Each structure stands twice: as structure tokens, then as C-alpha cells.
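Schema walk-through. Below, the input block comes first and the output block second. Nothing else is stored per chain. Lengths vary across the set, and this one has 484 residues.
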Amino acid sequence: MTTSAGLSGPRRGRVPRASYRCSECGWETAKWVGRCGECQAWGSVAETAAVPTGRASAGPVSAPAVPIGQVSVEESTFRPSGVPELDRVLGGGLVPGAALLMAGEPGVGKSTLLLEVAAQTARAGRRVLYVTGEESASQVRLRADRTDGVHDELYLAAETDLGAVLTHIEQTRPALLVLDSVQTVSAPGVDGVPGGVTQVKEVAAALVRVAKTRGITTVLVGHVTKDGTIAGPRVLEHLVDVVLHFEGERTSRFRMLRAMKNRYGPVDEVGCFDLGPDGITAVTDPSGLFVEHQLRQVPGTCVAVSMEGRRPVLAEVQALVTVSPAERPRRTTSGLDSSRVAMILAVLQQHCRIRTHQCDVFASTVGGARVHEPASDLAVAVALASSHLGTAPPGGVVAIGELGLAGELRTVRDLPLRIAEAARQGFRVALVPGGTERRPRRPEERRVDGMRVVEVPDLESCLRLLHLVAPERRDPPRGPRPLD
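--- output ---
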């Protein structure tokens, strides 16, 4: 009986196999393909070096493990950045040794905001190193002159080589490092072009390692793709401690900063800024930017109260419903979720007899605000019904509530905060959903913060109070008196 020679001898080590990786998104495959299976890019898949696998063994440690109660937290305390809205989003300020990633569309104001943060940190007596890879040093100096950001403790360097950036860090020893942007810096000895997956990973890993070992707060600026996600490998978001998104409409000066990841604070906070010719300033009260007609009676308008993080913001919703000459009526939205507007139109037609299937519908917000929260459904419905009937709702009214497919109103979170903000802005009446434990069959009224708060069970009851029902359904309502 013959046996195989391979079975009788000692077991041989496993030979490492080569893999292929996309230089655009990092997708890996076992064989070469001409088109990436993830990002659909042509000619971006290349062979990577095979790494032999082996068993890991115990090695030296950097510091012995200690009980968690004996770990000092003094080195990780917040330091104010000088920009209150940024401190609000971060949870208190900048943390020494933290790595932050700020992403946003081109021209939204990322560099202007970070230059303001660098100037304020320098005025506080802490050294700052601002490294730019997209502009020259003279261009950044011109922006600093325009925004009054010139200071002796603010150092500026224009570099695109990782080794040169590390040398500047060694020489200046800053407390804050700003790199604009991480996609423009390349690491020597690493394959790939600047901005590729391998280069971005190596550059980010090296800067995060320096930030942790030297206690330097590091802010990296990142590019975004067409769909708004951060360009480069997903591991970039895992390497940093905080991920911030800076967003805003090009036609508006209003900008919003959101925290998508934060290891040191909340992730539901939002900072508001005003980008002007003299720089960027914090907006501590953004409600006034999105409300034009507070107490006047205008058909097709209603005010909603949405939550931006933990801050209530008032936004005016406008609607225009007109008879369409085309066979297929248009549905156009700006600042609102188009699918929710279509759902609200269906509920109005089914449960309130407001026929809009042959009308062009335009719905938008004032001032470039983005209202995608379900709590704004009631305000959108009131604006649509008001425009269709040509009747203006009473002045000084805010509408808060999520609309269900059966026409009922559902409760929303943080209702007391929304009512208090509306009362502070001078509104007199708030239409809110009924109670959660026992939904009332008819509208009920109470007084909160000096406002008349009316709890309504469904959309039809709300429109009756506002005199916004179809003529064939205008029977006398029961419950509180109608709103004048």
C-alpha cells in the first residue's frame, strides 16, 4: 500500500497568499479584477504584498496595568477653544492628545473655522502649528489678516510631506496641530498616490500616534465624496477620537457643525455659525434666522419647532398649492423630506378631504434651514392646508407633532423644551399632540409658560381649530374655542 509523501513528513507552514486591493476605497479580493466591486472604479485594483502569518508571543509592555481608580484624568481635561459653539459640540473644549477629524464640502468654511480656533488658542497662550497642504502660506496669511487671526504663537507651514510635518512638530512643540488636509499629505516609502487608501491610513496613523505620545490636540481636515461621506478608508474614522461634519447651503451664510462621533462628550449636539466676509462667528440664538412672519397672518405658512441636538430651533415652513396645467403635477421640496411631504399630502386627502392630486405643490423652509424631523409634520400639514384653501392660520401659532398614516398625532420628545423656546420667541399658542397614557377624544387646553397649549388628537381636529377644513366639513367643533 502506497502513501503520500506529504502525509508522512512534518506539517509544513502555510504559504501566504497574495491579495488585491482597491486604491480608492480599500476593497480586497483574492484575485485581480479590472473593476472594483465596491466603488465601481476601473483600473484601481492592484496586488498587495503578502504578509506571512504566525503566532504572536508575549512582549514588553509600555506601562504596568493599574486599577482604574488610580488613573489620573488631569491630562485629559477640557481646554476652551475660544469658540463657544465648538466647545458646545465637543462637550467642553479641546482635550490634550485628542485626534479630531473635520469633514465638509468645498467652500463651506472649514479652513476659516479652524483658523479662528487656532487664533483663539494662540491668544490664550498656547502654541499652535497650522500646516496647510492645499494653499500657500501667503494665502493663509491673507485670510488671517482678513479675520484678525495673526498672532505670534500661531505658526504656519505649507507642507505635503509627512516627514516634514513631523519635523515641524519637533521644532515648534505645539499644543494644537491643524492639518489642512489629510488627503494632501503623503508618507515616504508607502505605495499609492496622496489621498489614496494606503497613504491616508499611514498619514493619519502617524499623526494620531504623535498626538497620543506628546499630548498634542490634532485636528485633521478631510474631504467628502459626492454623497457627503468622508473620502478615503473607513478606518480613518476609527483612528480618530472625534468626527465632525461642517455643513451649510452655498446660498446661505448659516453653517452647522455636527458631531458624528465623540469619545469625550455627546454626539447629539449642534453648533451654529455665521460665515461672513470678516470671518466666522458663533450664533447662540439661531431661531430668529429661520422665522420671517412670527405674528402676521400669511396663507401657506406655519412655524415648526425642531430639535437640533439638544437645542430647540424654530423654523418657518412655507407651502404653495396651485392648480397644475400639466397632466402630472409637480412636487418640489426644499429643506424638507420629500417622502414625508408626499405622505402628509396623502393623509390630508384621505382624512381631511383636501384634494391636491391635481395641484402643483411646493414646500420649503425659510433661511436655508433643513427640517427632517418627524415632529415638523403638523406644521407642514397646516401650511399645505392653508395654501390650498387660501386661508391664513392665526398669528402667533406653532405646530408640533408627528403625523401618522391614520391621521393621528403622535407625541414627540423634549416637548417642554420646544414649548419654552416658542414662548421665549413671543408665540402665544402651541398645537401639540394629546397625552401618551390616554389620548383625548377631543382637543384639550392648558397653560404652560404663559402660552395657550392645545392638545389635539388628530390632524382634522387641529385644522378645525384653525378654520382650515374643506367647506363641506365645516360643522361646529367641540372642545376649546377656535383659534382667532
